[in-house]
Amino acid sequence: MASIAAQVVLHPVTSQSLRVLNTTLGRDKLYRGLQYFARFFAWLLLSRGYKIQAARWDALKSHLALGRKLLRLGKFMENAQAALRALVAPGETGERITLIGRQLGYFGYLFLDNIAWANNIKFYNLLPSTTQKLNKRVMQFWFTGIVFSIAHGLLKAGRLANEVKKLQGQTWAEKSAEAERDLRLHDLQVAREAVRYQFIIDVLDVWIPATNIGLVNLNDGVLGIFGFITSLLALRQQWLAAAGKK
């Protein structure tokens, strides 16, 4: 029995899980997945008339959401730095503009989210009308950031596709030049996969703030599934990063 317990505790999967959960981002994505699953499951139970059980899962969703706000305290400064770096970095104008827009959108979202957290824990009390306006503004900034991220992904995907097509149409007599081309093609394909991956996350996530600000009207079941899927996708990225893979 002790041998089995030792194998479980010392298993490589357990060690890698601990490496993921040892990072703030890894814990956030795990909690986010649980939060959106709870949102979906609470909707499912409520739609079938199980009000007491639904209230339990709804409470879990709310507390996980509040806990995640604590993990994001001060994170808006990362987006401010990224926006400034994008401002002076070389590159395609359209990609730079959309990247800056994405970072500024997330900056506003996370900055106001910190204020919302302080209000939620009663550290600073806002009027109910002000709280409602604040929460809507948080969602508007989140929506703006995702839209710019989608636009950035489309522009970058188009540029990478053109570069791949251009390289594939070239031939070199020297083996060293051909090997260099193949290496460059591999790097471009990796970059394209990363862009596609983030695009999928953005296209699913965008419906959450879009619903909260009234642009569309999706129920909690659909939004819960979307959020759960994107959380798993983001958690997978952290898992691969912990394993030293890309």
Structure in words:
- Helix 5 packs antiparallel against helix 6.
- The protein has helices spanning 2-9, 12-21, 24-47, 51-71, 76-88, 93-120, 128-168, 175-205, 207-212, 220-242.
- It is mostly helical and 246 residues long.
- The protein starts with a helix and ends with a helix.
List keywords for this structure.
single chain; 246 residues; mainly alpha; 10 helices; globular
**Tell me about the biggest sheet?**
none
Task: Calculate the terminal CA-CA distance, rounded to whole Å.
Answer: 37 Å
Runs in which pLDDT lies below 50 for 5 or more consecutive residues are none
Question: How many helical elements?
Answer: 10
Strand content: under 5%
Number of strands: 0
What's the helix-strand series? HHHHHHHHHH
The structure class reads mainly alpha
The averaged pLDDT comes out at 92
Shape: globular
* Fraction of residues in helix: over 70%
List the helices and strands and how they pair.
Elements: H1 2-9, H2 12-21, H3 24-47, H4 51-71, H5 76-88, H6 93-120, H7 128-168, H8 175-205, H9 207-212, H10 220-242
Helix pairs in contact: 2-10, 3-4, 3-10, 5-6, 6-7, 7-8, 8-10
